[in-house]
Structures are given as structure tokens and as C-alpha cells.
Amino acid sequence: MTGLLCYCRAGFEPELAAELTARATGAGFAGYARTERNSGFVVFACDETDALSHALPWRGLVFARQKLRVLAELRGLDPNDRITPIIEALQAGMTAGQPHGALLVEHPDSDAGKPLAGLARAFGNALRPALRKAGLLAARDSDALPRLHVCFIDGDHAFVAVADPADSAPWPLGIPRLRLLADAPSRSALKLEEALLTLLDDDERTGLLRDGMQAADLGAAPGGWTWVLARHGLRVSAIDNGPLRQHVLDTGLVEHLRADGFRWQPPRPLDWMVCDMVEQPRRVAGRMATWLREGWCRQAIFNLKLPMKKRWDETRLCLDLFAEQAQRPLAIRARQLYHDREEITVFARQAPAMRHSVPVSGD
Asked: Where exactly are the structural domains of the chain?
């Protein structure tokens, strides 16, 4: 088969399937989504895989943790020899004799997939030397070559897929492994850390997070997102009627203002605004649009809490509403992060263009 294999949070397969279908249709591609609830992945079958992959860049997808191009789907694998069918599938589709730059052997991040972690680890150790002997894998890992993925759905069922290192997540399963530091005020700090790692590229993190920049954290208590910004050297106005952890204030970079995050506005333009308030997503989208429209901040990261049903529809509506009400050119990226749950995280920046911005309308 041909098509895209995308990983997602278990339970959000319908949302990812709906997003892939809408975006593929909008880009003029015919195909269909195939998935099962709580499987942790979606396959979008399409005969024009390479062109479709180019039209749907990974950074532009909301519900996909990872995006891969399927080379083969192998069923009925013999537990005594899973290597030979994979090598044969790769040799059948190999072009120009080019090896792959690295190998990841994975499993879906789901209840059914997690027991396969031991198999994936052991099989990867056996497959690598076999691939190198067959000339299918470079002697050393290289980001200059396509990355090979083998994803086990079951012991006898696997996808063989490939990723462009510049258009995919670099982490196994598409999940950055972050450690919660002991002095983090809350686990929500991991959400902002992951957003900065996932939604910004290396150059943007270097250029947009500099010592002395000014930021506001709306709904800051107990201070998780404020703490992350201060660790990057930003000076933060933490807006919340609730208390902040004392060690966050002790950084000397934080001013705590007891005010309503939905009503407060800065006395002068800021470099950053972040917001993780629990509110209706359309209300949050509208308020965030006001910040960008009025020029109160140059870039923002905020969360939209999604309803239990029709989450792709609500996502599309909120992103369209945000872009429309901002009334200025914005670069927008959105993602359901690993540390998100029933929500998505949005990065927006005042800029006429940016690579891989989200085309907010799926049609």
C-alpha cells in the first residue's frame, strides 16, 4: 500500500483522520483515512504519497505527532524471520541505491502498542546490522538521508515507512522526552517546554527567546509557564489573582500582578504573551486575536481546551476565528502536544510568512 502513516494521542484518531481528509481534499488529493479508535495511529491511503506528503508538511498538522510515508504494510510476519520480508520490501522500492540515514523501530503509543516496546528494542538491534550488510542503512546515522521507520502494530504486523528528517519529528514515536525538574511549580511547565521545542525550530528558539525580552503570562498561577520563560532569561509580568510559588518570584525576573488575565492589557508592547487559562476555546481565541491585532505582543503561545465531541471541527473554527479577528498577517502553528490532553497548543507570530504555517481552513 501507499500513503501516510501518522502517530497521534490514543483516542484522537477520529480527529487526525478528519484533519488529514480535510487537508488532503483541500490540496486536491484523493484518498481515505483508515484507523481504529485508541490505536494511536492513522493511515491515509493515497496513490500520490510523495506529492501529498509535500502538500501536508508535518509542522502544519495539528493532531499528528509524526508523519511518515508508507513503503509497505507487512502482515503475517513469521516470528522466526521478520527481517527478510522487510529487506525484500525495501529492495523492491529502493531508488538510486541510496541507503537510509537512520533506523527507528517503534510501536504506537497506545495500550495495545506499549507491550511491543521490548520487541521493538530487540528487533532494532538485530535489524540494523542486517540492513547495513544489504546496503540499506548508512554506516553512521545521518540527517542528510531519509530516516527508516519500522512500526509494529502486532508481533506479526508492521509498517515499513520513511521520513524526511526536515519534515518529521526527530524523536521516537514523535514524542520529545522531557524531564520535570524538581523546582518546576507544576507539570504544566512541560507543556510550554514542549511547545517551544516542537512549534519553533532551532533558529527561532535562538532568535525569539533572548535575555531581557519582555513577556506576559495570563493566568499564571502557580507559575509553571512563568518559570519556563524566566529560565530562558525573559522578564515576565505574571497575571493572576491567585498566588505564585515564592521561588518563581525570587528569580528577580517576575512581577506578579493580581488581575484578570482576560481583561489586563500591557502598558507597552511586549515580545511574548503566553496563556494556559481554562476557558471556552472560542473565547480564548478571540482574546488572543485582540492581543495580536492591537500589537500588544509580537508572538504568543496559548492553549485551546477542546470539547469532548467534534474536536477537529472546533479546532478549525477556533483557528479560523483567531486568524480572522487578528486582522493582520500571522504565522500560525498548532499541535496537540504529548503533554496536552483535551487541548491543543498554538504558536502565533506577527510575520507575513513563515515556513510550515498552519492553513487554518481545512477545506
From this structure: 3-174, 189-350
Which residues form the catalytic set?
305
The answer to whether 168 is a known ligand-binding residue is no
pLDDT in tens, 235-245: 999 999 999 99
Check: CB of residue 146 under 8 Å from CB of residue 100.
yes
Q: So what CATH class is 189-350?
A: alpha beta
Query: Can you read off the three cell numbers belonging to residue 160?
Result: 515499513
Cα distance between residue 59 and residue 167, in whole Å: 7
Strand, helix or coil at 80? coil
Cell of 96: 538510486
Span 199-217, pLDDT tens digits: 999 999 999 999 999 999 9
pLDDT of residue 94: 61
Question: Going by CATH, does the domain composed of 3-174 fall within 3.30.2130.30?
Answer: yes
Q: Are 345 and 334 in contact (CB under 8 A)?
A: yes
Opening angle at CA 195, ends 189 and 198, nearest 5: 140
Q: What does DSSP say about strands 3-7 and 32-34: parallel, antiparallel, or unpaired? A: unpaired
222 marked among binding-site residues: yes
Helices 281-293 & 311-326, crossing angle to 10 degrees?
20
Number of residues in the chain? 363
Q: For the residues 37-53, what does the mean pLDDT come to?
A: 96
Question: Are the C-beta atoms of 236 and 215 separated by less than 8 Å?
Answer: yes
Q: Would the annotation count 224 as a binding residue? A: yes
User: Binding residue per annotation — 260?
Assistant: yes
